[in-house]
Amino acid sequence: MKAFMTRGTIRFLETLEKKNTDIDFYFISSNDGGIAYYENSSKNIFSSGQAFEVLKAVGKLSKEGYVVMNHLPVSEDSSSTFEYRMKQSDSGIEKTDGFQAWRFLRQEKTSKYVVLTQWKSFADFENWKNSDQFKKAHDSQKAKQPSYFMDRPFVISGHMHEKEE
């Protein structure tokens, strides 16, 4: 399965939905602006944006909730090990109160990854982040850090955009 993501104003991104009624979009409002995300087998409708391979999916995405996307550049020589560990990991996240969905994505033609989690609320995410399960899950996920600052990990978070009727 593939996933596709692009950025822009929510107003602009919503126009994509009107033109592509066969696609189930998820819109995220973050401090940086808007993000449109969708999953399907291959159809990329974005003229600019990112395409991903979905390496592992847990849970069902919802049109409501809080989303955290960890963008993780991994060195080429560590990517196989990193993927294996992430695919095999059993953090227990899906048993955590407020959990909705988890996606492990690899950007096409790169060794950059996104770990997307979706929660019912920001408080549910904070509870997960402060849990022993979180600490345990992240202790074993270390990968070789890239050499250049422009390839440092970063996080984007935000709430699912609620459409005005």
Describe the structure.
The chain is an alpha+beta fold and 165 residues long. It has four helices and eight strands. An eight-stranded antiparallel β-barrel has the order 1-3-2-8-5-7-6-4. A hairpin with a 4-residue loop joins strand 6 (99-107) and strand 7. The chain is globular.
Distance between the termini: 32 Å
Strand content: 35-45%
Number of H/I helices: 4
Q: Please provide the count of β strands.
A: 8
Largest sheet: 8 strands, antiparallel, barrel
By secondary-structure content and strand pairing, the structural class works out as alpha+beta
Overall pLDDT: 87
Catalogue the unreliable spans.
146-150
Query: Which percent range fits the helix content?
Result: 10-25%
- Give the H and E element order: EHEEEEHEEHHE
- The spatial strand order of the largest sheet comes to 1-3-2-8-5-7-6-4
Please state the CA-atom Rg, rounded to the nearest Å.
16 Å
The shape, in one word, is: globular
